[in-house]
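Customer escalation, tier 2.

The customer says the design service returned an amino acid string that "doesn't look like it belongs to this structure." They asked us to rerun it and document both sides in this ticket. The original structure tokens are below, unchanged.
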């Protein structure tokens, strides 16, 4: 029975994505975040997050803070303690940094200067809900696969900042193949990305001429993804076919077993 089951599934592939988690109800802490977002203009906020396992060096955090401030764009930054490395991009070292307060991660006076323009959240934020908010207009991302899909399905342009593993491939897909992202001239893991380049990338996806083209491309992908997942769409039909074949196969196995 096992061998027949393997032969059934071995060479059958069905396109059923993109698959992302659904929106969830917000708790009171998240509610404060969304009250702030509700006050911001449409597509004006940059969301910054490097995933559950990604951290930056202290030097890189300082440069990123300066870049965000110099861009004069609104932002939400999910902040984790910096790594002890001098380079960029550690994995699962969050909380191992030498600094012991969030204020010490940033340039002097940064928290006072950003005022109502920037919002810092420690360790975790409801990413899907943030990316789906109409005030969000850009995403500085490590390009993990979940984050890549969540950016596309919500129509949000990306600053691709890969740290490790398959993220470089995902960044290349977003920038070179799909044209919905920009990325630093050097890999972040090979050195520190400077504040001037960070400012330039933020402005490229928000206010420069190129921003309109990038935004239009990612919105087309958003609509294509929604269409494929809706009833009658290609992914919907493929997944329905998988379910039907599995059901028929299961009934056949029950008959043979009896």
């Amino acid at each position: 029975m096992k061998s027949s089951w393997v032969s059934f599934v071995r060479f059958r592939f069905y396109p059923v994505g993109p698959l992302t988690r659904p929106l969830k109800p917000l708790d009171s802490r998240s509610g404060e975040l969304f009250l702030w977002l509700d006050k911001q203009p449409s597509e004006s906020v940059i969301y910054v997050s490097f995933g559950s396992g990604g951290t930056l060096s202290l030097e890189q955090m300082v440069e990123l803070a300066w870049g965000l401030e110099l861009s004069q764009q609104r932002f939400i930054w999910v902040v984790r303690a910096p790594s002890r490395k001098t380079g960029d991009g550690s994995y699962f070292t969050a909380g191992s940094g030498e600094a012991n307060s969030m204020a010490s991660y940033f340039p002097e006076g940064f928290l006072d200067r950003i005022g109502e323009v920037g919002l810092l959240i420690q360790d975790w934020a409801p990413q899907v809900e943030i990316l789906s908010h109409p005030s969000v207009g850009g995403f500085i991302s490590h390009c993990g696969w979940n984050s890549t899909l969540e950016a596309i399905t919500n129509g949000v342009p990306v600053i691709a900042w890969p740290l490790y593993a398959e993220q470089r491939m995902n960044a290349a897909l977003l920038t070179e193949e799909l044209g919905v992202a920009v990325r630093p001239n050097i890999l972040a893991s090979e050195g520190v990305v400077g504040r001037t380049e960070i400012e330039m990338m933020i402005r490229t996806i928000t206010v420069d001429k190129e921003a309109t083209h990038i935004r239009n491309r990612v919105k087309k992908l958003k609509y294509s993804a929604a269409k494929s997942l809706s009833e009658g769409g290609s992914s919907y039909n493929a997944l329905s076919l998988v379910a039907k074949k599995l059901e028929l196969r299961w009934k056949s196995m029950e008959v043979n077993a009896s």
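Tier 2 assessment: The sequence is consistent with the input. Residues 31-221 form a domain with the Rossmann fold fold (CATH 3.40.50.2000). The mean pLDDT is 83. Sent an explanation to the customer and offered a walkthrough call.
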